Amino acid sequence: MNTSIKISSEKLNLQECYDFVADPSCGGIAVFVGTVRNATQNKSVTQLDFSTYRPMAIKEMQKIADIALEKFGVKKIAIHHAERMLQIEDIPVIITVSSPHRKAAFDACQYAIDTLKETVPIWKKEYFEDGEVWVNAHP
């Protein structure tokens, strides 16, 4: 198996994603870790809540992984996303990719996060001291 796709209400594990893609035939592993930052659009963020339409999100994440494997010729890819309330510096998304050469790993990793944000039904609610707002309310 060359893909690991997960949506979890538990804390995401960077080591698990890294270990999944590690392979003796690969000279490069690219890693993207998204973290919750404390500010957006000149407002102070207190926390984020991620919701998904899980069956469709898993299907779309698998599609992204399959395309990345074929298009970039990478060996393995892991795409894990959180589905829960997260605090500042928590991790909502981890993508790891391994490849014999670094460029393919970097390109596939960037493709995966960019496409995930555009197409996967994952919604984010930002909480501020004075209210909250849904962000990217549609994929």
UniProtKB/TrEMBL annotation:
GO biological process, one term: Mo-molybdopterin cofactor biosynthetic process
UniProt keyword terms in alphabetical order: Molybdenum cofactor biosynthesis
Descriptive protein name: Molybdopterin synthase catalytic subunit
Enzyme class: transferase
Annotated EC: 2.8.1.12
Pfam families: MoaE
Recorded family membership: Belongs to the MoaE family.
Pathway per the UniProt entry: Cofactor biosynthesis; molybdopterin biosynthesis
Organism of this sequence: Tenacibaculum pelagium
Biological classification of the source: Bacteria, Pseudomonadati, Bacteroidota, Flavobacteriia, Flavobacteriales
Keyword Lyase among record annotations: no
Signal peptide positions (record): none
